[in-house]
Amino acid sequence: MAEITIYHNPACGTSRNTLALIRNSGAKPQIIEYLKNPPTRERLCALLAQMGIGPRELLRQKGTPYDELGLGSGDWTDEQLIDAMMEHPILINRPIVETPLGTRLCRPSETVLDLLPSPQRGAFSKEDGAPVVGQDGRRV
Prior knowledge:
By secondary structure, the chain is an alpha+beta fold. The chain has helices at 13-24, 41-51, 55-58, 66-69, 78-87; strands at 5-8, 30-33, 96-99, 102-105, 124-125, 131-133.
C-alpha cells in the first residue's frame, strides 16, 4: 500500500473530511497532528517546495494570530512568514497531504482525490451532508 501522510487538525472539518476520503480509498495514512507535533523548519520548507507554493499561500487567517501579527502587510519576507509559522503552527493551513502522486493543501477536501493512488471504495458525503463520491466510487 502506498505511503500517505496527512498533516491533520482533528478540530477542522475540512481536515476530518480529507482524512475520511483517504480512508475511503482503503489507505491507512500516517496522521501527523501538526499542532501537537509541528513540522521542523526544514520539513515545512520541503512541503512548500513539493506543493510549489510560497509561504503566504499556506498561511491560515481564520482563528489565528494573523491579524494581530500584521501578516496581511506585504512587508513580510518568505523567511519571516516561515518564522511566524514556526512560532505559531496554527498559522499553517491544513490539511496538507503527501502521496506518491504529489503533495497538496487539500482545500476543499475533495482535492485529495487527485492524490490518491487507489480509487474510492464506496459512497462518501462530507460531514455537512454534501455528496462527494457516489456508490460507484466516482466523484459526484
